[in-house]
Write a structure and sequence with these properties.
Order of helices and strands of chain B: EHHEEEHHH
Oligomer: heterodimer
Number of strands of chain A: 4
Number of strands of chain B: 4
Number of helices of chain B: 5
Helix content of chain A: 55-70%
Structural class of chain A: alpha+beta
Shape of chain B: elongated
Number of domains of chain B: 1
Number of domains of chain A: 1
Strand content of chain A: 5-15%
Helix content of chain B: over 70%
Distance between the termini of chain B: 41 Å
Strand content of chain B: 5-15%
Distance between the termini of chain A: 70 Å
């Protein structure tokens, strides 16, 4: 049987690791990761969007998440009602939707480990894990902000086609595109071996090996 | 004293930053255009077409299902609908952006986009059929496979398809260098 090509080996290893690590995530890692995301999201969201720390997200007894996003707006007077000042938007998100913001990590681990060589994969794995976790946090806060603006646009009843498109675009990227694609981009960015294998950018890290140079001999001037 | 000997690469030089910039532009524009109302209508028609293919494959292998627009229904009542985002068009945009950003002849780019899109859509039809049967067995496993497992497997497939294509492009480049 001829040996498999590197692409086929990567696909088989990557698929196996994806199945294994996503199953592990689904059954064992999800709850602790959601707890960390809720705590970190509360602090980070408070810093970015304003409001008190930990006020952005809280979990209700059913396990769903309630968001409290500070947003200043004035609602135009409606039939018999005066203009109203809005200071924040509150909305709920089911737990099944929130878990999408923890899913990039096991996907990144699978891609990072799909190349053979534990020791060479370790540094990219650590750096990529930090980057992926940070990105998940940013996506969660971005999603909260976009959702609050969508709700505000619905409340005010004056939403142009361009505004609606921009909000849809932001939400689509934060929920349906980046959580799935970003782990692959990060894996390529942090792993020079993977970059070399696919693009052949720069020098082959596998062929970089130390070469002993002969010791420099001190030259003595002789008197002739 | 030790220094590192580096093997020089004979492949044509590709600028990573240029590649990343063109890729990001193509990808964002592609996704943006996909979300415009006219393209959304075409997207729905495309989903219905894929469900028609999936239905034909199920019947060809002796399975039982009925089809209505973008919905595939089992005799037991379970039904699965191919919605926006389930037809792998966004993954095809990902592949097209990467192919367009990589320096190659237009002939090779068209080959990469055409053949790559076909492979991705073939995998997507397999995904849809597997979800159709998995949903009849367990909704928990259906949710897991639908939202997470298959999505990431399809992006991995896309990466590997792109990798095969790049290898082909680099070989073609090396061959033209050798013949020159």
């Amino acid at each position: 049987m001829p040996p498999l090509r590197p692409q086929a080996r990567f696909l088989l290893r990557g698929s196996g690791l994806l199945i294994g690590l996503l199953t592990l995530w689904w059954f064992a890692l999800l709850t602790p990761m959601l707890w960390v995301l809720e705590s970190a999201g509360g602090v980070f969201g408070g810093l970015l969007l304003g409001g008190r720390n930990g006020e952005l997200i809280h979990q209700n007894p059913a396990g769903d998440w309630s968001f409290h996003v500070p947003l200043e707006m004035t609602l135009a007077p409606a039939a018999g009602q005066p203009a109203q000042q809005v200071h924040s938007i509150d909305f709920d998100m089911p737990r099944s939707d929130v878990i999408a913001f923890t899913f990039s990590l096991p996907v990144f681990w699978a891609i990072a480990l799909a190349l053979p060589g534990w020791r060479q994969n370790l540094r990219p794995l650590v750096i990529g894990t930090a980057l992926t976790a940070g990105l998940e946090l940013v996506l969660l806060v971005a999603f909260a902000e976009v959702s609050a603006h969508k709700a505000a646009a619905q409340l005010s009843g004056v939403e142009g086609a361009a505004d609606a498109w921009i909000l849809r675009f932001g939400e689509y990227l934060a929920v349906s595109v980046l959580p799935y694609a970003a782990p692959f981009f990060i894996a390529l960015a942090v792993n020079p071996r993977l970059r070399w294998q696919i693009f052949q950018w720069g020098a082959d890290p596998e062929s970089s090996r130390p070469v002993e140079l002969p010791e420099r001999k001190s030259l003595k001037k002789g008197r002739g | 004293m030790a220094c590192y000997q580096r093997e020089l690469n004979s492949a044509p030089q590709i600028h990573p930053i240029r590649f990343a910039a063109i890729f990001a532009c193509c990808f964002l524009v592609g996704i943006g255009v996909l979300l415009t109302p006219p393209l959304q209508t075409a997207d729905k028609v495309f989903s219905q077409m894929l469900v028609r293919v999936a239905h034909a494959v199920v019947q060809a292998f002796g399975g039982h299902a009925t089809r209505e627009a973008a919905v595939l229904r089992a005799p037991g009542g379970f039904a699965v609908e191919m919605r926006d985002g389930c037809n792998a068009v966004n993954v095809v945009i990902l592949l097209c952006s990467a192919v367009l950003a990589f320096p190659a002849s237009w002939k090779l780019k068209l080959l990469g986009i055409g053949l790559g899109s076909l492979i991705i859509q073939a995998v997507n039809v397999v995904r849809f059929i597997s979800l159709f049967y998995l949903g009849q067995y367990s909704m928990t496993w259906f949710d897991f496979a639908h939202a997470y497992l298959w999505e990431s497997l399809i992006v991995l497939d896309t990466m590997v398809v792109f990798w095969y294509w790049v290898t082909r492009v680099l070989r073609a480049g090396a061959a033209s260098h050798a013949s020159a």
